Amino acid sequence: MPEAAVRQLCWRDFHRQVLAAFPRLADAPYRPGARDGWDPDPTALHAWREGATGIGIVDAGMRQLLQEGWIHNRARLICAGYLVKTLGLDWRDGAAWFARHLVDLDEANNWGNWQWTAGTGNDTRPNRGFNHARQAERFDPEGAYRRRWGPS
């Protein structure tokens, strides 16, 4: 089995153990003292959900989610990071949206990864962020993904 697949299985199992120990993983910050106040912006949340933020790599991921019910892990991280770190919106709204649309939903992994991205989870680097432009350059340098899932 490829190393990357083993790593993902380890994360899945880890998040299942975290959920077993902390049943409120879906609705409360795991890390004591972590940020719990987020800026509400229904317009920005709606644009993110619809893949209409104007950020190509984010919009591509969100459109793929809506059309296929699946997106690659890297696109999930980019989209999640944009919602919580760039827009400052509540990770729970993003996690619930993913939970509603993902055909491969693993609840523990979904909530655990959203908390990790938001900096509220069991992580020693709560200020981590994803630069969407750098991520697009690194993982979609020719723009094929953005073109495929761009506006019709």
UniProtKB/TrEMBL annotation:
Its cofactor is FAD. This is FAD-binding domain-containing protein. Signal peptide: none annotated. Transmembrane segments: none annotated. InterPro entries: Crypto/Photolyase_FAD-like_sf, Cryptochr/Photolyase_FAD-bd, Cryptochrome/DNA_photolyase_1. Keywords: Chromophore, FAD, Flavoprotein. Residues 6-151 form the Cryptochrome/DNA photolyase FAD-binding domain. Belongs to the DNA photolyase family. It comes from Glycomyces rhizosphaerae. It comes from the Bacteria.
